[in-house]
């Protein structure tokens, strides 16, 4: 009898075990399994605390994604994602990619990529994306164009004209429907319509502070003595006479345009508008007071401005659709005693991705119009 009872209990145990195992299998089949570990190094996903669907949304502390490396800049990828450029004290330049600004994957680059010059300026164009790096020859270092189709793998542009015959570090790259331009405040430029071949030129007006590229050509603004100036070109090489406005020396002069055409030009905090005949101040219209011109960025249809802490341990951000007042949003920033800084503001999705730093910590934000 004992053997019969034991056999019955064993059979019941095996049946129950099969149901438990089957239940586990069914649960696994009903959910996505974790993806295989990528060949590139990827940090764990940090805790995200998104805010509302619009406004200033907190993506959390993302410092672990970058390890102990220094992040210098973030730029949009051709496929809509993001690419970050930074520096490792031992291995030199480091490149990370992300789809959402939270999960970042380090990509492996060939030795000597960017020739140890960390890209801080780039644009969409050519095969997909272009950045400013360096090329080191046996004679001297010179600035050069580097290219990528996806932001992951980078090679130096092969055309000899992509070696810019300068070792200046005050270069900025700007692109738009008319082409790509690399410019210096002195007025020296290099222009390309395909991102492959580059033609040197000169605006003829030193003191350039900002540029934009639209379907009609290239627009430069700047400061000369006690005057702000605006000058245009159809091809980036032949520039017309400047249109000038009185402005105290040292006044911030900038220009920015969204891909949908919304444009802002400012002298100090005064908003200006350009027409075929010239440009004029827009009555009662201002732009937010931000640290520098690069803190005002174009998106799909709107413009965004991101400033530094405004008191109470907060950041302030603004968006503007092209008319009326700028709409401001305010959100409690990350905790800490060190003053935070804005590292990059770049278009992403329907809004902008913002990377901020506080000491050795990095924080991600999404700003939606």
Task: Categorize the overall geometry.
Answer: globular
Largest sheet: 4 strands, antiparallel
Element-by-element helix/strand order: HEEEEEEEEEEEEEEEEEEEEEEEEEEEE
* Residue windows where pLDDT falls under 50 for at least 5 positions: 1-53
Instruction: Please give the order of strands in the largest beta sheet.
Output: 1-28-27-26
In percent, how helical is the residue content?
Answer: under 10%
Average pLDDT level: 84
* Structural class estimated from helices and strands: mainly beta
User: Would you count the extended β strands for me?
Assistant: 28
Number of helices: 1
Radius of gyration: 26 Å
Distance between the termini: 78 Å
Strand content: 35-45%
Notes on the protein architecture:
This protein is 8% helix and 45% strand. Among the domains are: 43-67 and 290-369, no CATH class; 203-287. The protein has a 4-stranded antiparallel sheet, with no helix packed on it. Strands 2-3-4-5 form a 4-stranded antiparallel sheet, with no helix packed on it. The protein has 369 residues and is mainly beta. The protein contains 1 helix and 28 strands. A hairpin with a 3-residue loop joins strand 3 and strand 4 (92-98).
Structural key phrases:
369 residues, mainly beta, four-stranded antiparallel β-sheet, 28 strands, globular, 8% helix, 1 helix, disordered N terminus
Give the helices and strands, then pairings.
Elements lengths: L1 H28 L25 E7 L8 E7 L5 E7 L3 E7 L6 E3 L14 E4 L2 E9 L4 E8 L6 E2 L15 E5 L2 E5 L4 E5 L6 E4 L5 E7 L2 E8 L2 E7 L9 E4 L6 E5 L5 E5 L2 E5 L4 E8 L9 E3 L4 E4 L7 E7 L6 E6 L8 E8 L2 E8 L2 E8 L1
Antiparallel strand pairs: 1-28, 2-3, 3-4, 4-5, 6-7, 7-8, 8-9, 10-11, 11-12, 12-13, 14-15, 15-16, 16-17, 18-19, 19-20, 20-21, 22-23, 23-24, 24-25, 26-27, 27-28
């Amino acid at each position: 009898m004992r053997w019969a009872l034991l056999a019955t209990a064993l059979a019941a145990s095996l049946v129950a075990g099969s149901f438990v195992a089957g239940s586990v299998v069914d649960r696994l089949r009903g959910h996505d399994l974790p993806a295989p570990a990528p060949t590139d190094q990827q940090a764990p996903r940090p805790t995200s605390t998104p805010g509302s669907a619009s406004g200033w949304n907190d993506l959390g502390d993302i410092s672990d994604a970058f390890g102990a490396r220094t992040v210098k800049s973030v730029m949009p990828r051709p496929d809509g994602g993001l690419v970050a450029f930074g520096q490792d004290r031992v291995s030199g330049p480091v490149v990370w990619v992300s789809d959402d600004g939270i999960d970042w994957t380090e990509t492996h680059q060939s030795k000597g990529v960017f020739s140890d010059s960390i890209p801080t300026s780039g644009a969409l164009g050519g095969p997909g994306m272009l950045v400013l790096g360096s090329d080191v020859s046996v004679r001297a270092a010179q600035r050069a164009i580097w290219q990528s189709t996806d932001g992951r793998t980078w090679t130096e542009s092969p055309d000899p004209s992509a070696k810019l015959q300068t070792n200046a570090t005050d270069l900025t790259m700007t692109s738009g429907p008319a082409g790509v331009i690399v410019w210096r405040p002195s007025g020296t430029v290099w222009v390309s319509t395909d991102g492959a071949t580059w033609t040197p030129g000169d605006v003829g007006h030193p003191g350039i502070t900002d540029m934009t590229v639209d379907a009609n050509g290239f627009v430069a603004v700047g400061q000369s003595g006690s005057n702000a100036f605006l000058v245009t070109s159809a091809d980036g090489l032949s520039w017309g006479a400047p249109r000038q406005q009185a402005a105290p020396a040292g006044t911030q002069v900038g220009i920015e345009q969204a891909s949908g055409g919304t444009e802002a030009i400012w002298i100090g905090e005064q908003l200006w508008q350009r027409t075929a005949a010239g440009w004029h101040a827009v009555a009662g219209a201002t732009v937010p007071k931000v640290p520098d011109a690069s803190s005002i960025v174009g998106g799909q249809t709107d413009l965004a401005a991101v400033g530094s802490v405004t008191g109470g341990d907060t950041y302030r951000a603004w968006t503007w659709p092209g008319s009326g007042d700028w709409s401001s949003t305010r959100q409690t920033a990350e905790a800490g005693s060190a003053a935070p800084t804005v590292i990059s503001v770049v278009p992403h999705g329907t809004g902008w991705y913002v990377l901020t730093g506080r000491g050795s910590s990095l924080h991600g934000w999404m700003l939606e119009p």
